[in-house]
């Protein structure tokens, strides 16, 4: 199955149903901090709900629309990242999260750099976006370290159960016309 070896024990592996248990455990353990920044994390996942999401991701992978990838470090799942691609507009977007214990090592910066290169190189995208809550300093720092440009604030563009939050829009675009 699809897998990218980024060196030094860092690997991105297409999420398969066999990952559902480990990813659910990571999401449950990190739920409180993930839910601060990502609306989907408000809901406590079960192995079955994760398996169902992974199955959907595999369908979208087969359609050429998505990579939902497990971030593995030293052979252990430590988070996830994803790239969704629109084959009509040639615009992609990238998202990511890590286990708290895996923060501060540059893993996501390396993962997003590799995904961005694949988006432009392998998949011919013209634009790749990262959208984060304005207050999400760590997520914004990843976008900036990976060379994305801040394009502005999308006001109230992220829906949580009880509120809408402002979103910082970052994008990288192909270097030639
Ligand atoms: C957003 C998130 C993935 C960022 O994690 P992170 O560990 O800060 O990001 P990276 O993995 O790129 O690591 C960067 C850190 O490692 C350090 N680092 C060490 N080696 C590095 C290297 N080779 N390259 C880059 N940074 C390196 C950097 O200095 C930085 O540390 P600092 O923040 O103390 O300055 C994480 O905070 C998270 O999961 N948050 C909750 C979910 C979330 O908000 N997701 C994004 C929603 S859009």
UniProtKB/TrEMBL annotation:
The keyword NADP does not apply. It is an enzyme of class 2 (transferase). SUPFAM superfamilies: Acyl-CoA N-acyltransferases (Nat). One of its GO terms (molecular function) is protein N-terminal-serine acetyltransferase activity. Its EC number is 2.3.1.-. Keywords: Acyltransferase, Transferase. Residues 26-176 form the N-acetyltransferase domain. InterPro entries: Acyl_CoA_acyltransferase (IPR016181), GNAT_dom (IPR000182), Ribosomal_N-acetyltransferase (IPR051908). The keyword Transferase applies. GO terms for cellular component: cytoplasm. It comes from the Bacteria. This is Ribosomal-protein-serine acetyltransferase. It comes from Catenuloplanes indicus.
């Amino acid at each position: 199955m699809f897998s990218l070896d980024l060196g030094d024990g860092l690997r991105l592996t297409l999420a398969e149903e066999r990952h559902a248990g480990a990813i659910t455990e990571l999401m449950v353990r990190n739920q409180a901090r993930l839910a601060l920044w990502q609306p989907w994390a408000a809901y406590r996942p079960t192995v079955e709900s994760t398996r169902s999401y992974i199955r959907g991701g595999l369908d979208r992978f087969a359609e050429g629309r998505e990579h939902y990838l497990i971030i593995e470090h030293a052979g252990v799942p430590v988070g996830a990242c994803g790239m969704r691609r629109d084959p009509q507009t040639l615009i992609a977007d990238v998202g990511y999260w890590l286990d708290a214990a895996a923060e501060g090592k540059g893993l996501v910066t390396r993962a997003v750099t590799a995904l961005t290169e694949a988006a432009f190189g392998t998949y011919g995208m013209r634009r790749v976006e990262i959208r984060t809550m304005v207050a999400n300093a760590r997520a914004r720092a990843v976008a900036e370290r990976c060379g994305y440009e801040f394009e502005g604030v999308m006001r109230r563009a992220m829906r949580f159960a009880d509120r809408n939050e402002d979103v910082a829009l970052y994008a990288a675009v192909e270097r030639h016309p």
